[in-house]
Structure prediction request, 141 residues.
Amino acid sequence: MQTNFEYFMISQVGIWIRDGKMLLLEDAAHPGKYVIPGGRIDKGEDSQKAFRREMKEEVNLDAFEVGPIVDVRVWYSGEKQTPYCAIVRLIRTETEQITLSAEHLSARWVNEDELSEILFVWEFGEDICRAGFKVFRNQYV
Prediction:
């Protein structure tokens, strides 16, 4: 039997909610549009190590607890319709300070009511952020 499996670029992002607000980053490649911190898994890299590496690279976050999965999304992008998969998780930390990478122009803490005013790089960005707030309330409040 012949099968035709899809091969995906996998991204992991961390929804960080503090004092009722979520951290969003303005993407330097798309000024005025926002992303959730995180990034792709490198070839051969352990997924947990990749997630921690990306959070360190994106916002200089070392110490954090990895919480539950909030959402998983699959989409196709670009001229070649490259398949992507995003794994969205909650993270928790006592850290107050962040340092942005060169991939981002600014950081913004937003509450759930502000999400409809945000332009996201991912067309489903608002949906996964709302899912993050919902899981956060159910898990930690």
In short: The chain has a mean pLDDT of 95. The chain has one domain: 9-140. The chain is about 20% helix and 40% strand. Residues 9-140 form a domain with the Nucleoside Triphosphate Pyrophosphohydrolase fold (CATH 3.90.79.10).
